[in-house]
Design brief:
With 415 residues, the chain is mostly beta strands. It is built from five helices and 30 strands. A five-stranded mixed β-sheet has the order 1-21-20-19-18. Strands 13, 14, 15, 16 and 17 form a five-stranded antiparallel β-sheet that branches. A four-stranded antiparallel β-sheet has the order 2-30-29-28. The chain is globular, with a radius of gyration of 21 Å.
Length: 415
C-alpha cells in the first residue's frame, strides 16, 4: 500500500527522537550513577513478566553442515533470522521461527572476503550490513554478499603510542568508530570516529570528564579497547578500566557520557598478574551490556564479590574446565533510575525468574531492533539446568523432552 512521504518522515523523526531520549539531555539532570557499592547491599529477584509476557523456544537445525561449537560468542535475532557466532570466522544463519539452517555469512581463509579468525563483529540492522574485524575489516549484507573492506584511519604522529584495534562499529552509512589501546603508561584515545575515506572525524579521549581513569599499566588490549553495543540505531561504548558508558550523538558526531558506575572498593585495578602488580580482591567489572529504551541489563564479572557463587565451566581447547563462578547480573531502570543486583531465581542459574512457563531462568543476552529479548543455551547445558527447576509447567516439560544433548543450541525469545 502506498504511504505518503510524511509517513516516512514521521517514522524517521520518531527513531531519532527515541535515540535521543535514550541518551541524557540537559533537562534530565545529572548523568545517572549506577552505585555498585550500594547495589551489593540489596540484591533482589525480578520476574521475566516485569519485562515481557510471552516466550518461545527455537531448536536450531542440527546437521553436519551447520554444527555449532561448544563456545557461543554471540547470538543476534534480527530480520526473522538468528545469526550465530561461535569460534568460526563466519556467522551461521538460521530461520528465527523454524530454526532451519539457511546459510553462512563470511568465509574462512586468507583471500578477499575471507578471515582466518573473527575477533569482532557489528550488526547494523538499519543498513543491513555486518562488519567483521580481525586485522582487516570486511563487510557483508544480511544475505551473505561480500561488500568490500573498510580501511582503518591512522593516528597523528604525536599519538603514535596508541594502537588502533579492529573492533569497528558502523554508526551510519558513512561513519564508523573503532577502539584503541596503548603499550605506554597512558592511553590518549579511547575511541576514534572516522568516515568511509578513513578520515578521523572525532575522538573520545581517555582523559575526558566522567572517565574515571586509574593511572596503571595494563597488558590486556581486550580491556583497553572496551566494546560497543547497540539498540536500533543507538550505539554505546564502554572502555575497559573505566567507569563510564558512552552514547554516540549523531548531531555532534561524537560520544558523550550516558551513565557511569560508582565501583568504590570494587573498582578494577590491574588486568594482568605479574611481579609487582596488585590485584583488587574485591574487583567487579562489566562483562557485557544490553539495552533498550527502558532498561539496561548488565553482566558483572567479579573476583569473589558474589554472595551466590556456583559451580560452572568454560571451554578451553574443546574441553570443559570447571570453575567457581562469581558473576552477577544487574538491571538498571532508566526511567526510575533504580539499579539492582539480582539474586539467582534457581540456585546455580542466574537470570530473571521465568514466571511465564516456570521454565529456564531467562537473561536478555541480546535485544533486537524489534525489542525482542534473546537468550541461548547449549543443548546439553539446557537439559542439565532444566532438570534443576522445581515446578516447570507442562508446556516446558514437553519441550524439554524434545531436546537431545547432541542438538545445536536452544534459542529462547521473550516478547
Amino acid at each position: 500500500m502506498y504511504k505518503p512521504a510524511l509517513y516516512y518522515l514521521t517514522i524517521i523523526f520518531g527513531l531519532l527522537t527515541s535515540c535521543l531520549n535514550m541518551n541524557r539531555t540537559e533537562k534530565e539532570g545529572p548523568i545517572p550513577v549506577l552505585d555498585v557499592v550500594q547495589g551489593q547491599k540489596n540484591l533482589v529477584k525480578k520476574n521475566l513478566t516485569d519485562f515481557k509476557s510471552n516466550i518461545r523456544y527455537v531448536k536450531l537445525e542440527t546437521s553436519e553442515n551447520c554444527l555449532i561449537g561448544n563456545t557461543i560468542r554471540k547470538v543476534y535475532v534480527e530480520d526473522n533470522k538468528i545469526f550465530i557466532r561461535d569460534t568460526e570466522p563466519f556467522l551461521k544463519v538460521f530461520d528465527a521461527n523454524t530454526g532451519k539452517y539457511l546459510y553462512n555469512i563470511g568465509r574462512k581463509g586468507q583471500g578477499p572476503g575471507e578471515l582466518p579468525y573473527l575477533r569482532n563483529i557489528d550488526l547494523n540492522v538499519q543498513e543491513k550490513i555486518i562488519t567483521f574485524g580481525y586485522v582487516k575489516i570486511l563487510q557483508y549484507d544480511f544475505e551473505g554478499k561480500y561488500l568490500g573492506n573498510i580501511t582503518l584511519p591512522e593516528l597523528p604522529p604525536d599519538e603514535s603510542t596508541d594502537i588502533i584495534w579492529d573492533n569497528v562499529v558502523m554508526l551510519d552509512e558513512n561513519l564508523y568508530s573503532v577502539g584503541a589501546y596503548t603499550v605506554s603508561d597512558h592511553q590518549m584515545n579511547a575511541a576514534i570516529v572516522f568516515d568511509e575515506q578513513s578520515n578521523i572525524v572525532n575522538t573520545l579521549k581517555s582523559y575526558d570528564d566522567y572517565i574515571q581513569h586509574p593511572v596503571v599499566l595494563t597488558y590486556s588490549p581486550q580491556q583497553q579497547i572496551g566494546f560497543y553495543y547497540r539498540y536500533i540505531d543507538c550505539v554505546y561504548f564502554i572502555r575497559g578500566l573505566c567507569d563510564t558508558v558512552y552514547a554516540f550523538n549523531p548531531s555532534k558526531q561524537g560520544f558523550e557520557p550516558h551513565f557511569y558506575f560508582n565501583f568504590g572498593k570494587y573498582r578494577q585495578s590491574r588486568e594482568a598478574e605479574g611481579p609487582g602488580m596488585t590485584l583488587n580482591p574485591d574487583e567487579i567489572r562489566v562483562e557485557q551490556l544490553s539495552e533498550n529504551e527502558e532498561f539496561v541489563f548488565i553482566d558483572f564479572w567479579t573476583r569473589k564479590a558474589s554472595t551466590e557463587p556456583f559451580n560452572d565451566y568454560f571451554v578451553r581447547d574443546g574441553k570443559n574446565v570447571e570453575i567457581v563462578n562469581y558473576s552477577i547480573y544487574a538491571v538498571f531502570d532508566k526511567q526510575e533510575r533504580i539499579f539492582n543486583f539480582l539474586l539467582q531465581p534457581v540456585k546455580g542459574i542466574r537470570g530473571l525468574e521465568n514466571d511465564i512457563d516456570n521454565g529456564m531462568p531467562f537473561w536478555p543476552k541480546y535485544i533486537s531492533s524489534e525489542n525482542e529479548f534473546a537468550d541461548y543455551w547449549q543443548a546439553y547445558d539446557f537439559i542439565d539446568k532444566a532438570n534443576k527447576i522445581p515446578n516447570p509447567d507442562d508446556s516446558f516439560k514437553k519441550f524439554l523432552e524434545s531436546v537431545d544433548e547432541e542438538d545445536n543450541p536452544i534459542i529462547i525469545i521473550a516478547y
